[in-house]
Structure formats: structure tokens, C-alpha cells
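Help! Submission page says 'invalid entity' but I think these are all valid:
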Amino acid sequence: MHPRRFVRAVLLIVSLPLVLGAQTLQEKVRAHRVAHEKELMGEYREFVAIPNVSADHENVRRNAEFIVGMLRKRGVAAELLTIAKPGANPVVFGEVRVPGATRTVVFYAHYDGQPVNPKQWAEGLEPFTPVFLTDTVEHGGKIVADWRLGQPVNPQWRLSGRGAADDKAGVMMIINAYDALVKTGGVPTVNVKFFFEGEEEIGSTNLGAILAVHKAKAAGDLWIICDGPRHVSGRKVVAFGVRGDVNMDLTVYAAKRPLHSGNYGNFAPNPALHLVSLLASMKDDNGNVLVKNFYDDYVLFSETEKLAIKEASFTDAQLLKELGLKQPEVPGRSLLEGFELPTLNINGLGSANTGKLAANIIPTTAKATLDLRMVLGNDWQRQAGRVVAHMQEQGWHVMDHEPTDEERAQFAKLIKVEVGEGYNAQRTSMNLPLAQAVVDAVQSTSAEPVIKLPTVGGSLPLIIIEQVLGTRVITVPSVNYDNNQHAENENVKVQFLWEGIETFAALMTMK
Amino acid sequence: MHPRRFVRAVLLIVSLPLVLGAQTLQEKVRAHRVAHEKELMGEYREFVAIPNVSADHENVRRNAEFIVGMLRKRGVAAELLTIAKPGANPVVFGEVRVPGATRTVVFYAHYDGQPVNPKQWAEGLEPFTPVFLTDTVEHGGKIVADWRLGQPVNPQWRLSGRGAADDKAGVMMIINAYDALVKTGGVPTVNVKFFFEGEEEIGSTNLGAILAVHKAKAAGDLWIICDGPRHVSGRKVVAFGVRGDVNMDLTVYAAKRPLHSGNYGNFAPNPALHLVSLLASMKDDNGNVLVKNFYDDYVLFSETEKLAIKEASFTDAQLLKELGLKQPEVPGRSLLEGFELPTLNINGLGSANTGKLAANIIPTTAKATLDLRMVLGNDWQRQAGRVVAHMQEQGWHVMDHEPTDEERAQFAKLIKVEVGEGYNAQRTSMNLPLAQAVVDAVQSTSAEPVIKLPTVGGSLPLIIIEQVLGTRVITVPSVNYDNNQHAENENVKVQFLWEGIETFAALMTMK
């Protein structure tokens, strides 16, 4: 072909979209998604229907294999990364090398989910039978009973189910972002790696080992984490840090057998009373943790970080109203300002029964589960140790086992403390060029200014990734904030799935 | 007949038992029971197998009809006493008039039971599938798996099941005491009335109305209550009073939906923390209730009562050891001395989940059920009112309903308080001749001195009986103390059933 004719032919091809109405990457990705919504949603419902409680290894593996299938169907080489430890859930790994790319970006999500108590879910909702809701249960959402597979899906609907938002949504968005990108003629600017973990909800206890064993595969210039919710305002978010986390299970012991509260009241100590005294001593009415040295070693936000927090703190009043709260725990402190500090939270309490099931007894035990979040500077073992020291100062005999008869005879206040596996917080500097590139890519898909958070409130084991791989980690949380993650009636808003696909396609073509 | 021959004939008849081996009433009753143990136990297992949770009206009625059958089988005219109120459980009533008797004694027990949570029962135990245990579950008792109907029963065994001790045992003892008495040629010295209630475990809310409607039937010179346990030492007990009782269900509200403890920690108030602060403020570490005026209006024990308490307080050390407790709630105060005072007990606590089911959330609600016991002088409504006032003083907005959006916007501390139907304490003077007659009758069946208690720790609606009928009320508690009444693994020791039959036969022939 004559060179000039070739050039004209090329120009013709290149300018065709202009003639038809020029399309940005985002528009192309969106058009592709719109054309394939029904298949995408059908596949996603199938995915959410596979039980994914982290400890349910058999079903967790079914999830992993389902994801491998999703990747392969889209032409991505995929495999399971495992370690030789019984009960360790596999990572799903996939990789696409892009000729000429100088950077490698690892896209992370997790496919395991928090435990479920089906009784606590609303009528008609089952953790692993995803259905569409017209709104959240709390806002009076109803099940869309007449929807059938293949029918259109209203983007305002919610899809219910454990993991629907946290964090199978991340897997769904990342895989479909890549697919939409390449199916519409796009090419990633970076080598793309897919890394989907199966143990995030139990503290990622094996992640370090998996990364160490599969270091070359996991290596990258940047890890982008897709987990957690966007801002309450709906605005997109880029987050540069996460809190660390550790759980503590407490069990207080009293009499060996349940006692009639009349025959033994005023004589036998009540373990529930002992427990409430202990817990009440840990935090004052202003939300300050009273455990000695609890606030000793956290790193304050930098000026850049404080500014970012200030810019993002504008929806607290709306949030309080929506949650049905008069005021925050510490009046005057914003949601995001609180992210600077470590937390001590009561996840749950239990002793005998309440309400209709209650009997007039003195219970034998009383239990609480605590959640401690760490910020930069805290060490999770040191922090948990402070809570244990607090108990000891108050005269508790702290054990890692059920009390023996000897211990019962010797100590009036008996408590078993089980400290889970924890990890520390992680923060990436907001001033890195890579950080700016991520913000720019996300911003390219949003008319509203992207919110930059020095840290989110939640926890991910990003410190492990940073330490084992020596890489950078940035989080792009992408689901609706009112998703009930970790709790009953978990849901993802369909529109957020669709927008997440656009976000991650943009990140795969970051400058 | 010549007077002397008449006297000789009479002497011959009177001395006949001596010739055959003279038998006391107790010996005759015992021999009759020994000969019929298998049938008695077969019938009792059948009785305990009928679910009897007070609110389960259909099954409660099956229990009532079963008791009617038990009475009729023994030749006692029996009927159900009801009132025209939907859902009111019937009383089973029976009556035997004794020619020449000048006193009428009403024998009371209740056949309804506390709620059950089958999951909390030990492996192999079901609340309504009674089985024999070699000992209490807490003492390592095992199920006697190879026992079959008709085989002998070891008197040291326990029969498990809700109501096995509290208080179907009372029904069983009273009916079989009468039967053994008359079958062995005995004649009651009093008109005997049987009165078996079906709503004791829900506060006997309809008892007053039933007594008022059926006043003539319920009338008697004395009511003897068979409920509650004998002394820890195993000694038999006559009790002259009971505590009053009222339950309070508390629900603390926070955010409308469960929140991720990381994303909302340090911002959203935690209802479990609010609840523990409230509960901890109600009682100090020395077991003193801190609710204002809580101890204002109780009547101190009289000197006679104090003496009785002192005589009976000798087994606390053994009890503490057996319960696995270092010390009582108030070191230095005996179990029975504590009966002088009102109580405030936490029956149960609940908020979200603990342990393996716990999720990292801020729960939406936290609940507690309290049990307040009243002593002489207390009024249950006044006492519950003091607890409510305590909450209000601490800034709680106390409601009888779920919070409205307006209340949520207005108040930071929201609590729903549901006060159950309660009743006050009752005490009968220990110095009445009738009181002495009861003690003497019980003493006639026991080698050990009978323990006299001015009051038991538990509650029965005896004040209602006293007030509506103007009669006297005395309690003869008869089951083993370690029966787990109101709780999981409830059990009755077989020997206590057998001995109870002797006790009540003696009471039916009281002087």
C-alpha cells in the first residue's frame, strides 16, 4: 500500500469514533458494561451465592475456583497460590504482561467473608441467597420478588448477601474492569496482576507466608487495594493508609453452675456484673479509653493529612441523622478526625439470655469480644498487653484457659483472655508521584472531586505487604457506605459495582 | 360385750401392728413407694416429657389434663379452675373431705416451667426428653443410657428435664403422698385440697383473679407450698416467707444499622458500652446496690428469725467450694443473712455476638434482663421505679417503646425499659401454733433437725394468696438444692422425690 494511502486508512480508522461521537475510556467501558449487565449480574449472583466464611475451607475453595474460572473466561492466566499449611485458604492469582509497560500494579481484593448468624438477617434474606432489594433493609427496602435472571437490573437496587460488598465486589470490579478495557480495544499501561485473598476476615494470618513463598509473582511497583466503602457523600475515595487490628475474646467466670437468682442472689457473685464493671472501666462517657498508656505511641497526622481530613469532613451531620444518632461519641470530633486515634470497641456481649428467653438465674459466665484498632505507631501486641494489664491492675486473674479448681479457690475475679492474631497500621505518603497518579486516574472517572484520606478507619493487613514485598500500597474503596459490611443484611448498591468497573479500568491505564 | 373384753379386743387390734412389726406412718408410706417405684417413675417421666413453658398454652393445658388424670386415677375428684381471660393457664384443683376434720389444708405446687434454650443444655440432654443422670452434669454425671422403663432406679440418680425439680416434683410428691397414705390404710387429719398452678414462672399474673373467682374452693386454714430446694446440707426445711419478684428488660439503642467498627469506631456510640456503664453504676464491688433508696424500706429480721437464720447458716464454705467460688459477693455475709435484703441481679446480657460468631461491628442495640427480688416492706413497683429513676438521673431517656426518629435526634442515651408484672414478699409468723404443727409434721419424717427459715431466697406469689383468701401460707421446699432450676440441665435427685412423698403424707396427718 502506498504510504499516504496507508496513513489515510489509519486516520480513517482512528477517527471513526470521532465521527460516531468520540468516546473516552470511561465511556467505552460504560457502554460495554451496559451491553453486558445481565451476564455480569448473573455471574455475580452466582459468585455471592457460594458461602465464603473464612473458616469454611471447603466453600472458600469453591469461591477460589469460581474466580479462577472468571479470570480464564476473560483470557487471563490464573492459578491458586497456596502454602503447605493445612487449612490455609488459597490466593487466586492472575497476571497480564503488557509489552512496553514499565510499571507493575497488583490489584488486590479478598473473597472471604465475616461469620454469619442467619437468624439476625431480615425476613426473607439469607446470607448466601443473594436477592435484590429496593433499598437497604434499614430504609424499608423490599425484596424485588418478581425479578428473574436475564431481566434488567435497576442500578439503585441493592444485591444482598455476605460478601456482596465486602469484598467480592472488589473481585468483580477488578476482573470486569480489565475485561471491559481490553474488549473495547484498550490496552493497560501497566503490567496487571490480580491478587485475591481468602483470609482477610480472619486477620490475613497466612498472607505474609504466602507473599514470602510466592514473592516474584506478588511483586509490583504498587499494590492497589479494592476494599471498603466510598465516602458517605457518594464521592470516590483514594486512601493512603489503614488501621491495624486485633480481637480479644473475654470470658468471666463465676459459679460452676447456673444458680437461681432468688436462692443465691446476694450471695453468689454475678459474672455479668463483674464483666460490665470491667468494661465500663475501660472507657469513659466521653469516648476516652481509660486503659493506661493506650494513647502513648500513636503518630499524629501530618499537616498534609490534616488538611485532607478537613476537606473530607463535611457530611457528619447527614451521617448522624441517617444513623439515628443525636451526637458522635465525642461531641465536636468528626468521623475522620477520629481515624487519627486507636480504638477500643465492644463487638458483642453475651451472658445467659435476655428478654423472652431470660430466666431468673445468676449466669455461670459472661463474655465479650473486643476489637482494638491500631494507628501508625501502635503495636498490636503492646496494645492488647495494655488491656490485659488494665485487668490485672483491677485485681483480675487473667488466664488463657478455663479456670481450674485451684484457681477458683484462690481468685475472686477470673477472666480468660484470648488474643487473636493481629497486625499493625500502614500509611503511604500522599506526596509520592505514584500517589498522585492514582488520584488522577480515579479523578478521571468522577465529576466530583475525589476525596483523599490519609487513612481509612478499617483495617487491612497492608503492613504485611509493605514489609514482605517492599512495595507501595494505596487503597481505592469502592462500595456504598451503607453496605452493612460484617453484619446482617450486607448489601452492595448495583450502581457502585458499575462505577467501580470504570474506576479500575482507569487505574489500569494510569499515567 | 363385757367392758373388760372390749378393752382386750381393742388392745388386740391396736397391738396387731406391733405383732406384725409395728410400722409408723412414714414406714408404711415408704414401703408402699418402694413397692411401686417403677410405676411412679414411669408416670413421672411421662409427665416431665410434656413441654411446660408457661407461654406455651397448648402444652401447658396438656400438663393440666395429665395432672387431672393422675388425681382421678387415685380417686380424687379433680377439675380445672379457669377464668374468662384468653391465654390464662388453668389451675388443677382436687379435693378430699375428711369426716370429722376441723382444718382444711391446701397443698400447692406449680406445673409450668421457665423458658428453655435447648442449645445451652449439655450434649444428649433435651429439656423435654427426661433421662437419668448418674450425677449433675457439673459433677461429671453421665446419662444412664442402658436404663429401660420398668427397670429399678438408683435413688442417687437425677432425672433431667425442665420442671423435673421446679416444680412438677411438687405435684408428684403431693399426689403420691396422698395416694400412699390412703392405700396403706391411713386417713388424713385435715380436709385435703390440691391446687396446682400453671403460671408461677411468669409471675402468677392471673392467680389473684382465679382465687377471687373460685374463692370457696381455694379456701383453707393453711396453704402449704411445695416449691424450691431443701437446704444445701440436705436437711429438710420449713420456710415462713418468700421474696417478691419483678423483672425488667432493658434495651439500649445506638445507630440504626450495625456499623463497621473500623469505619465508625471513635465516632458512633457503642450501645454495649453505654449499657455496661449503666449496669456497672447500679452495684458496687461489694455487692451493694447503688440505686438511690434501694434499701430504704425493708423490714429487718426479728430476733426469732435472726436466731433461725443463724442456726441454719453452717454450710456456706461447703457451698462455695462446690460452686467453685473463692468468696461470696459480700465477704462475711452468709447466704441466709443475704435473704434479709432485696436483690438486683443481671439475668442475662446480649449485644450482637461474641467469640467465633463475633464480627467487627458496633452493634445497634444492647440488652439486659434484670431480676429484682423484694423482701418484706418493699413494694415491687416502687423498687422498679427507683431503678428507672437511677437511669434518668444518669441522663437516660427512658421509653416504653422503640425510639422514634425525633427521640433519636433529641437524646444521646436511649433506653427502652419493660417492667414485668411483679408481686411483693410474704412472711408468716414463726410463732403461730399452725407453724409449729407444720414443723412437727416435717420433723416426724427426719432424723436430722428440720431447718426453719423466716424466708427463702426465691419468690412465690404467696402474698396474693394471703391477701385474697385471708389464709396462712407456709412453704415446705423439697427438692435437691443443686437442681439447676430455671437453667439448663435442670434435674431432680430421685431420693428427694421419694422423701418428699413421706414429708407430705406426714403433713396430711398433722396434729
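Support: the input was valid. A stray whitespace character was the problem, and the output above is from the cleaned input. Chain B touches chain A through 104 residues (CB under 8 Å).
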